[in-house]
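Supplementary Note 3. Input sequence used for the single-chain structure prediction.
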Amino acid sequence: MRYHADGTLDASFGTGGKVTTAIGSLDDEAFALVLQPDGKLVAAGYTSGASSIAFALVRYSTDGSLDTSFGTGGKVTTPIGSVDDEAFALVLQPDGKLVAAGYTNDGSNEDFALARYRADGSLDGSFGTGGTVVTPIAGTYGEADALVLEPDGKLAAAGYAYNGSDNDFALTRYLGQVCGDGIVEAPEQCDDGAANGDGTSCCTTTCEATAPGTDILACTTTTTTSTTTSTTLPCPDNGFDGVDCLLRSVVPPCIHERMPGSVRRRITAATTLVDHGMDARTAKKARTLARRASKVLKSVVAHASAAAAKGQLSMLCGDALDGVLQEAARRTKQLAASHP
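The predicted structure, written as C-alpha cells, is reproduced below.
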C-alpha cells in the first residue's frame, strides 16, 4: 500500500493505493522494502510452495504495476537450501545491485543466508557461490533479520543464534569490493582490474560516463604535485567548456548519496557562473565571471572536505569532489587572469 503524507491511500498506486502479488502456490510474505533512485520499489520476503520455501523478490514500477524487466514478469525466487529459505532484510547498493539477507534451513540446521542480485534480478555470480552466501553461526539455528551496507562496501548482517538453551545476538560482516578484480562492486564506480597490469589500476575515486546517457564508465585519475594539480578526464583541457565538463563529472560518484545542501548549492552556483562565462560577450565580463566562479569553487572544496570529515559523504564521493573541484578552481583562476 502507498500513502499520501496525510496517511490517506494514494489511489494512483495499484488499485486504490493497494497492490497484491501472488508468487507461489501457498503463502507469500514480504518483510523488507527498498526504494530505488528511479522510483521503483523492491520487496523481499519468501514464497511457499508444496514442498519448499524460497527467497522471493518483486519489483514494482512507480504506479504499482510489476516491473517486467526484473526477473520473470517482475518476480524472482531463489532456493538456497532444500527446505526453508526466507529473506527479512534488503539493501540497494550504489551500483544497482540488491542484497537480501535471512536464513536457510536444510531440515537440520538453520544458517544466515545472503543473496545478491543484479539490477535485472539475476543472481550475481561474483558474490559468494553462484550469488549466495551461507554462514553457519554457533549452535544449530541462526537467522539474519537486518542488513546494512557500510561506506567501504562491506555488508553487516545482524540477527540471532540459538546456543542450545537460549538465543544470542549474532552479527556477521562480509567483504565488499576487491580492488583490481575487474568487477564493479559498491562503492566502486569502475574497476580496471588486470587490464592495466595489477590491482593498483583499480579505479575507485572518480569516473564518469564515456558518453552522455550511457552506463559505460571510464576511469579517471587525479595526480598532485607540489605546485599543481592535474586531472586526466575526457574533458577539454582549457576554456569555460572544460570547467563546465569538470563540474558535471562530479555527479556519477555521488549520484546515490544525499549531498549536503551547502555543497550542492555552491556547485550549482559555480556551474551557473561558468555557463554565463561561456556566453560572455566581452573578455572583461568573462574574467569577472571566472573570478567569481573560482571563489565559489574554493568555498565548495572547503565545505565538501568538512562534510567528508563528518561522514556526510562517502570516501568515494569525497575524493571525487576534492580532486575535480580543486582542478576546476585552478582552471577558473587561470581564466580570470588570462582570458583574452
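Residues 283-309 form the longest helix (27 residues). The chain has two domains: 28-174, 193-338.
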